[in-house]
Amino acid sequence: MTNTSLKSENYPVNLNDDQGTVKALEESGSEIRYEEVDPTCLNSITVFRHRLQIAHGTSHGTKPLSILVNSPAQEFENAQKAAKLGYFGPKNMSSILLPIMKRDGNSRIVNVSVGGGGAGYWIWKADLADRFELRNLSTEVLDTLVRKYVRDAANGELVEQGWAKRLDVKGPQNHLYVIPRMILGAYTHLLARENPDVLINASGGDSFKFLKHVYGGAITPTFLALGDLKGVSGRYWIAGKPVDWESNRYKPPETDKVLSWKKPNKVKVSELSPSELEAPTPRPEKPFTWVSFKPKTLGPDS
Q1: Regarding predicted confidence, which is higher, 20 or 42?
Q2: Where is this region: Disordered (predicted)?
């Protein structure tokens, strides 16, 4: 198998060798710690933030966090839980942890969204998709749309309201994965607009873009976290390249809009190979502490 690596002299990141990557990072002076935090619980995130400040405040000051990667867990039970994990969870993590992020112009937030593009790609009803136009969007509007999605799903009106084509409301209920993550992509633009001194971007789904291997899904998020972005923020990326989140517009046929629905052509993905992705910038003088979040399992009442 071709080596799907993103590595430099300072940041050896080999997606084919988990243990080797951990060892290399530790040998470079970085520390890897595992923390448990519930992204759907504001108190859990706040307690975690305090732990970070206590553990690293001496060596890194009052803002010890440099990189935050929000990769929501998959939830296929119902729309309410999917929205909690896929949208509100990353939103909670970002809003509570942003105050302790370094404001040096190179700190990162990476939101792992969904491939294909934005609302114009995934939502078949044009008037609903138009409500996601970035120029008219606000966090309040986005929250309202998320709650509408949850309400429409509970009422069995996803197709009628335009969220999903008929096949999507059958197993495995793809909309539970797609819609919250698509909305997370829209939130990424808003968050970047409000925080110009942090590089905030969204990654599309790359899982099988590289080498038909699940590790390929980590290439773009890793690049957004460690690579040289040349100051680019507020963009949606696929295969290591920024693409237009709003460019894909689905135009339904004039006949039966639901039964005749055909998936639009995907965004044209660059032929860029993993080895051609730009190497991450050298790490700062102080070694990183790599923190891996282990989400708590949601209970039945969550």
Answers
A1: 42
A2: 270-302
